[in-house]
Specification:
Blueprint (H helix, E strand, L loop, with lengths): L4 H8 L2 E7 L1 H7 L6 H4 L5 E2 L3 E5 L14 E5 L2 E7 L7 H13 L7 E6 L2 E6 L3 H12 L12 E9 L5 H19 L5 E2 L8 E2 L14 E8 L5 H15 L4 E6 L55 H12 L42 H9 L43 H41 L2 H9 L20 H15 L2 H17 L3 H21 L9 H14 L3 H17 L3 H11 L5 H16 L16 H17 L3 H15 L5 H17 L3 H11 L8 H20 L13 E2 L5 E4 L11 E3 L9 H19 L12 E2 L10 E3 L4 E8 L6 E14 L6 E2 L12 E3 L2 E6 L4 E10 L3 E15 L5 E10 L4 E4 L4 H5 L3 E3 L4 E5 L5 E6 L4 E3 L3 E10 L5 E8 L5 E3 L9 E3 L8 E2 L4 E9 L5 E13 L10 E13 L2 E9 L3 E3 L2 E3 L1 E10 L7 E11 L4 E6 L7 E2 L4 E10 L19 H12 L14 H10 L4 E15 L7 E14 L3 E4 L21 E2 L5 E2 L1 H14 L3 E6 ...
Parallel strand pairs: 1-5, 1-8, 8-11, 11-12, 17-28, 30-38, 53-62
Antiparallel strand pairs: 2-5, 3-4, 6-7, 9-10, 13-18, 14-16, 14-18, 15-29, 18-23, 19-20, 19-22, 19-24, 21-23, 24-25, 24-28, 26-27, 29-31, 31-36, 32-34, 32-35, 32-37, 33-36, 37-38, 39-42, 39-49, 40-41, 42-46, 43-45, 43-47, 44-46, 47-48, 50-51, 52-54, 54-58, 55-57, 55-60, 56-58, 59-62, 60-61
Length: 1466
Amino acid sequence: MDSDLKYFVHRSFPAHIATLVSPDVDSLVKKNNLTFNETLLPFSEVTIEGRRNFICPAYFGILRDQSGHELKVNSLNLCFQELNHKLQPPVIVRKMLSNVVASQQQSAHMVGISIGKKQIEVPKTQPWYTQWKELFLNLQEVYDHEFIRHYLACIFVVSTSNSNPLSQFESLSKVLSQQTVEASQPVGLVYQSSSQSIKLDGHKTPKIFSSSIPRYYLLLHDAMEGDISKAEDVFKKMVYTYGAPNCHLLVINSKQTSYQDDGNHTQDLWMSHLPKKLNIVMEPEASEGVVDTSIPISIEEGEPVIGESQEAELLDAMREPSPGGKLRPSQSELSLTSLSGMSAVNSPQGTNSILYGQVSSPNMGRSMIFGTKNDSQYGSSGSLTSVQGLGPLAASEDLEKDHSILIHGSCLTAEDRQRIQTFVNEFYLKCLLPFIEGQMKSLYQTAMNRKNAQTSIFSATRRFFGSTKTKQGILPGTGVYQFDSPPLQVRRLADLAFMLGHYDLAYECYHTAKRDFESDQAWIYFAGALEMAALSVALHNIANPSATKPVPFRYFDTAFNTYSNIAKHRVLGIRSGILWYETLSQAKEFEEAAKTCIRLTGEDSDLMCALILEQAAHCFLRTISPSILEKAVLPSYPCRYAFHLILSGHRFTKAGQRRHAARVYLEALRVYEENGWIHGENHIYVALGKHMQYLKQLDKTVAYLSKVFGLNRQRSVACQMSVLRDFVSAGEASQREGLVSKAIELPIPIIDQKKVRVSIGLNQEISEDTDVLLATGIDVNSDDALHQRWLKLEESVICQARGKTVSLFKPKARLLTEKTNNTNKPVCTCQEPITFSIPVENHWKIPLSLQNLYLLWKFKPLSCEVLMSNEDEFGSEDSQLVTTQLIEVVEMAPEAKMKVILSLTPLEPGELIVTGLAYTLVSKSSDGAIVNSMQGRKIFTQMVGPRLNSTPVERKSIIYAKDFRLNYVVEPIMPRLRMSFQNVPDFLLCGEVKQISVKIENIGKTSAKNICVAYSDPKFIWFEGTLVDNLWGTKLNIPNNCDSLVPGASAVLNAWIRATDESGLMEFDLLFYFEEEIEGNSRSPRYSLINHTFQILLNDSLMMSGKAYRRPVELKDNEYTDSLSVALRLTSRHLSSEGLGFLSIDDVNVLNDEWEATLIRDAELLPDLKPFQEAVMNITCAATRPVEPVNDIETNDDGCIDVLNIMAQRCMISSQSSSDQNLVNDEIAYGKKLKKLLDGALDARLPICVKWKAYVNSDEDTATKQTVFGIHFIYIQTLNKIYRIPASVAIVPSSQTKETKILNFVTFDENGEVIKGDDQRLLATLESEISRCICYRLDYKSPVCHDFSKSRLCLVPVKIVVFNSFRKEVDVRVAAMDPRLPPRNQLYHPEAMTPFSWVGTSQTWRTLQPRSITELNWTLCASMPGTYCLDNRLKIDCRITFDGEEKPRVFGQVLKFDFELLVTSP
């Protein structure tokens, strides 16, 4: 940001000098590849000191002495132009403005500032803006309301080669005289009221400061061609005719002509002042002249190029000849050069005014500077350097060469250049400065006379009485200022004072003139005086630091509003705004300067708005401290700074300035990046990616667009598709050209590395034979609970294989997840696959297509120390070290998550490290065709495990465990077995038993021995030839008594599987174990594992329920024993009567040797159950003495293995006693004692097996029935409890029983504390169970015939047998009830009401050992015939003394049996 206001004004408001040259001058200066005006460009800055005496009274407030003072002028900037100089066409003006910005790309000065914790660099200066604003002001037309750009003098130039130089001077003088007469005519300005627009018609003649401007005569002589003596003679005549101060002889070209660079030339002073060759035919999207046009770039909307018709019209206008009577324009007026090489010739007054910049209205002037809504309407390509504000756009008529190639001033020696500088100085001192002094004196007198007239008593009287003020200098009835009207004279004086740096005098004159213009309602004059007055004060304060007068910034505000809203002249409004902004910046009012810049923005020019918005952004950056660019101070508005840079970048993009757009976006990114402003950061990355793509910086395009994928996900589908398409397209092109490596890390899709799962071992294979099922292996995506099941099976099979329990079990690492212990490197073997499950997420709303996915690895073989890798060989999956799986295509839906399964197989021992995932990202069209593809990868970082928290050091710091999930130690080759299963059905009935075949093949290169298997549940499978009681694992018997399988050998084993009782999908696991065969005992053999999981769909077949309860003590083999009664209910539950005809029950037996069962049925045959038919049967079991179990395999009568019995025995053996649920709170000691007492008292341990067969449709022929066999097993563990198979099916009782309510009495425990209500109910349940644990039996003779006529009493002996079912010694009391009391059970036996009584012993106490029997002999006395219920008047109690208690507790027994005695009389 250039804050030097004085320098900017000095460059933008030079003194304009007109030149008229003869045609022979053009050929003379052409030797230097220059025009005459271009020759003077390096010498136009006059820096010598000129002093002139000038009288100025104290009225103007600067010099107060009446005699005079000395005004010092240090320097003056001169602008030499042809008298008939015309403005450039609008297309050229826009082209020049665009290219002067494009020529300055980077600032040479950068400064670092701190924003929060960030340290960023911002440009200290913006040379592109400085060049643009100077060119913008100098390319404006010359207006009538201001005189600072009017011609102050005219120089006539004639060469000595002319035949009559003096006559040529006279001709040129006549041209100036004619132009002066035309210029003195009334100005074409119509001003009206503020409600109407003001129309400004510019002159077709040059703008001349006054009718008496000085005329300076220059005689130009070629030292190499002309005669110097002749030139001196002509010069003497000139001095005699025009006077010595107005004449000058200039000798140049003291060297030979040289158009090209011969290496022997002096410094080219003109290179920095001349523009480059201007190209009219525009290339789309190449606004900066540096873009490679070979890039296929589409033309954006709003950026059309010049068509053939427009170019032809432009060339035709340039070819029009000059009319007669006018001098042919000199070479300096030629301003256009097309690509076709045709020279541009200045058009006369009769040509197209739009093309040559003749403005007839304010809107036309606006079109000249800004064009249409977008600057790039006519394109903006080309290569134009910064244009010197005071010189015209030069071109060459004969040379088709750029100024950067041509050598300028090659015929000018150092003496010639010094002569040119002397000529300019003499013209300034002898001609221009005296004229300015005279004009200021004359204009001062005019101002004084006007002041005296205004302060007279007559003017005061007129104002007092309200008479109408006469508008001075206005033609009556026209509203047009006269050329020498007093207000314009004051304005002329102000402009001259401003030009010479006399800013105090200039302010007073501007201030006086603005009052007159305001009273005359000449608004455009009024606005011009206001802006110059405010600018004068600002420059005066700069020149005089001690000045205290504040700058009237309100003048700028009023001038801007007047130009924009009243005069409707946008160009002048922009100029006023720029001066306003520069003044505020000089005064350190950066916040107000930013607001001013924002007011200047609009829809007129995208380029102008972009530059102004960038200045506003830097103002916000400098708001807090004026010296922020010198001191690293935290800015006040970093967000506003970055936001306005984004707005500037958007307007730069619309203007075609892509390099500047990328530059400001990068500056904004330094603020937005990593601050959480996702939307702004996302917009910047997308814009930068597109700009870099158009600028063919494809590597940067890929870098910026890759950032977009990790930011905002809420973009529309169309935007996301566009970003993906651009990213893949740029990536493919950059990789093809070698700008971007194929090893680039792609941003999409997202991989959650922490959730990568790894399985080591056999993967699931698919057999070509549909009847053969191969081992499933390890499922890499199985849940953790399944993994724990495999670990238990591994421990079981190792114990079985080694014949002993492993004290320290260390499982083989076969499944690695984020929840497993990965602190040690897992071990794998050669030719053993390693499977990876990689979670991939597409977080965008568009589908993704990935191709050629494979894993990247590094491998260090044991044979050498060289680390090898496949990272540099993209797309190569073949290797002699590691076999890499390749997935050709993966399609991901929008916002989808999936898992990619890939595998590696090491082929040699060594160390393997997985480093990443390589793939190709594909961009497709709407019809699914592949458009572009980009190769890349995802690199895996070093994984860390869970945070450690075991030691104090770990708790005080943040330390994570190591995770070696992707690092493997590869050991030498191991035996490889292939497990296959035949005849495995897809469907079974619940409980069905089916034979399968297991084939074991050694496909490895070494022998395998000690082959074992472990299973998840022994009820489900049995291998033929193994022991029945091997529950969790067994060693497999290889046929032919082979201890091992050599490579290429195989073995077939028979196995039987039984379906579970639950319908649905049945799963059970097998884990095979085998070891390598080694010689000697040098080390422990290594082992391998193979997993297999059966999955079979089960249909319902049979449902069972059973309940056991106590029976009276039974007499068996003359001995009394305990007995049970079982109620067994069978229900056929097959769902389809078409597939299953009926189900036949073959056998029901009890498998436990402790009980002898007797089937009690009405029918002699077992039932055949149709669908949903139910059968109920009772089983009576008597206790027997336990015998030694027999492990021999049972056979049928024909010698075949009874598989059903074997499977039933395995079901019985695997059924373990499941302890009842704790019924009471552990804190209640009494409840614990009751529970311990019941242990064993209620145990039944009664396994019941039901064998059945069913007839189902054959798979090949549905009309044919086949017979299948099965067993159902129910294990009744506890008495008085219903057991169901399957357990998930509820049995609906035939009659619902009402729930018994327990009264909530307060109960105290042994410590005197109140027992809660829930515990009371549980205690009542336990006491109720204890009251049913003492069994008894009454043996007597029935019926009894007694003659009551002979004897009134009938005495019947009764033996009472009592059984103690407790596993504790108890005291049992058998007592007769009082005959006077009513019987206990008359409610249930109302017919047995005949009273009786016990005679003899009425109460007996006996101590019974655990599970023992005692006998009592009592006598019953009956008094009449009838039916007597013997236990109706019998009461049994048990007395138990608990450990730790002194007093025993008595529990009454409520167990009732029906013992009836029939007494008859003959």
